[in-house]
């Protein structure tokens, strides 16, 4: 009888850090299992990824050899398949490799007629569970635990999108309109008050100027002084030089 594969404590998981396109409608990312198979793998061994629907993972049976690996196109009926065949040395601690794997990234698998395993897009949101399986020339040698269920995003049908705005959006629009009207009224009142103040100051300046002009105008209309009459016996020659004869003393 073949020896049962060793059970490794490693649990595959979606990267917890922020990652663009970490989970989409047909794909998801997995952390790369570095240093997991060291001590169990030979240079000729390969590591596979087993993908199964979450409710069918318990019924999955490891294939005895590579020829019995379930292909991607049997997923709708077999409820599981194996993909991402990779040399075990690529997952060693010293191997430089990308930090994540992308499940479902090969769109050419849908048109592939041969039985070769491929990494095709996942046909439904799932949920799915995955595990890594180390296989040698004599069959499975070690396997990880199953992951937690992985649910893909659901694509929204264009016919399901409501073109009319939601009620909450209408209420927000009404409140925004009211606030804008109040702001415009307040701005108008402030500008009116400032305008009245400026206009009043200009009017006061004009009144002060008119009063000054009127006072100045009166000073320029003082009637000229009349010439004094000459006394009897006085004669002016040349003009401006007048001589008067002495007057006799008045009788007592």
From TrEMBL:
Entry's Gene Ontology cellular component terms: membrane
Signal peptide as annotated in the record: none
Record-annotated membrane-spanning stretches: 171-194
Keywords in alphabetical order: Membrane, Transmembrane, Transmembrane helix
Designated name of the protein: UPK3B protein
Organism: Bombycilla garrulus (Bohemian waxwing)
PANTHER family linked: UROPLAKIN III (PTHR15446), UROPLAKIN-3B (PTHR15446:SF15)
Keyword Transmembrane assigned: yes
Top-level lineage group: Eukaryota
